[in-house]
C-alpha cells in the first residue's frame, strides 16, 4: 500500500500580511514611478494654463440650489491641495508595469478629453465675492488658478479615478476595512472641497464625476480565471 503525494505540494503558499503586500507594491519599479509621476505632473500644468489663457470667451456656469447650500469654507483648502498626493498613491501601489501603464493611460485620456472640452467649450465659474488676505494660500490659489477651465472638473475626475484604482489595490492586498473607508472618505472630501473653496460648482463637479467613473470602469482589470485545483493522486 502506497501513500498519496506529500501535502506540501498541495498546500497554498501563505499570503503576505497587508502591510507587507502594500510595501512590496511600493518597492516595485519605484524609480520609474517617481520619474513618471514627476514628469506627468510638471507637464500637465503648462498645457492646462495655456488652454485657459488662449481659449475663447468662457461661458459662466449657472449656480444651483446645491451650490447655494454649500457654505464657503476656506479651511477645506488643505484638503483641496492634497489631490496631488492622493493621485500619486495608485501610481506608488501599482504592482507591475502593466498596471502602471493602465493608470498612466487613464490619466492621459481624462486630461486629453478635459482639455479638448476646455478649448472647444470654455467655461468659468461665477465671480464669487471672496475675501482672501494677500499672501495667503487662498489668495495665491485664486490668483494662480483662475475661474476658467471649469467643466469638467479634473480635480474631481482624478479623485474619482484614483479612488477606484486604490479600492481595487487595497482589496487585492487584503487591507482592513478602515483603510478602504479612509480611501473613500479622502476622495469624497476632495470632491466636496472643490465647491467649499469656490473653485467649482455642481455642474462641473458632476462632469468630473462622470469622466472619472467612466475611465475607472473602462480600465478596470478583469479577474483572471482561477486555477483548477490539483487533485491528489493515490498510487
Portion in beta strands = under 5%
Number of helices: 11
As a percent range, the share of helical residues equals 55-70%
Count the E strands: 2
Broad structural category: mainly alpha
**Can you tell me the overall shape?**
globular
Major beta sheet summary: 2 strands, parallel
The helix/strand order is HHEHHHHHEHHHH
* CA radius of gyration: 23 Å
Ends distance? 8 Å
Report the mean per-residue pLDDT as an integer. Answer: 84
**Uncertain parts:** 4-9, 224-235
Spatial sequence of strands, sheet with the most strands: 1-2
Your description of this structure?
The protein has 11 helices and 2 strands, in the order H-H-E-H-H-H-H-H-E-H-H-H-H. It is mostly helical. The protein has a two-stranded parallel ribbon with strand order 1-2. Helix 9 packs antiparallel against helix 10 (177-196). The longest helix is centred in the N-terminal third of the chain and has 25 residues, at 30-54. It starts with 17 loop residues before the first helix and ends in a 17-residue tail after the last helix.
Write the layout of secondary structure elements.
Elements: H1 18-27, H2 30-54, E1 59-60, H3 65-69, H4 77-81, H5 83-86, H6 88-92, H7 97-120, E2 123-124, H8 137-144, H9 154-172, H10 177-196, H11 202-218
Parallel strand pairs: 1-2
Helix pairs in contact: 2-7, 7-9, 9-10, 9-11
Amino acid at each position: 500500500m502506497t501513500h498519496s503525494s506529500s501535502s506540501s505540494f498541495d498546500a497554498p503558499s501563505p499570503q503576505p500580511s497587508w502591510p507587507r503586500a502594500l510595501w512590496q507594491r511600493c518597492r516595485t519599479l519605484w524609480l520609474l514611478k517617481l520619474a513618471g509621476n514627476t514628469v506627468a505632473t510638471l507637464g500637465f500644468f503648462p498645457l492646462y494654463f495655456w488652454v485657459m489663457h488662449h481659449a475663447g470667451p468662457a461661458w459662466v456656469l449657472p449656480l444651483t440650489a446645491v451650490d447655494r447650500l454649500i457654505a464657503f469654507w476656506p479651511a477645506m483648502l488643505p484638503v483641496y491641495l492634497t489631490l496631488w498626493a492622493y493621485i500619486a498613491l495608485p501610481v506608488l501601489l501599482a504592482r507591475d508595469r502593466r498596471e502602471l501603464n493602465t493608470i498612466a493611460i487613464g490619466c492621459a485620456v481624462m486630461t486629453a478629453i478635459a482639455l479638448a472640452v476646455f478649448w472647444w467649450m470654455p467655461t468659468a465659474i461665477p465671480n464669487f465675492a471672496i475675501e482672501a488676505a494677500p499672501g495667503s494660500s487662498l489668495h495665491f490659489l485664486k490668483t494662480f488658478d483662475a475661474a476658467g477651465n471649469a467643466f469638467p472638473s479634473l480635480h474631481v475626475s482624478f479623485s474619482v479615478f484614483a479612488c477606484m484604482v486604490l479600492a481595487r489595490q487595497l482589496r487585492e492586498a487584503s487591507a482592513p476595512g478602515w483603510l478602504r473607508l479612509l480611501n473613500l472618505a479622502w476622495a469624497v472630501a476632495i470632491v466636496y472641497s472643490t465647491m467649499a473653496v469656490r473653485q467649482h460648482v455642481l455642474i462641473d463637479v458632476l462632469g468630473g464625476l462622470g469622466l472619472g467613473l467612466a475611465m475607472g470602469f473602462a480600465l478596470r482589470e478583469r479577474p483572471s480565471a482561477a486555477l483548477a485545483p490539483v487533485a491528489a493522486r493515490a498510487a
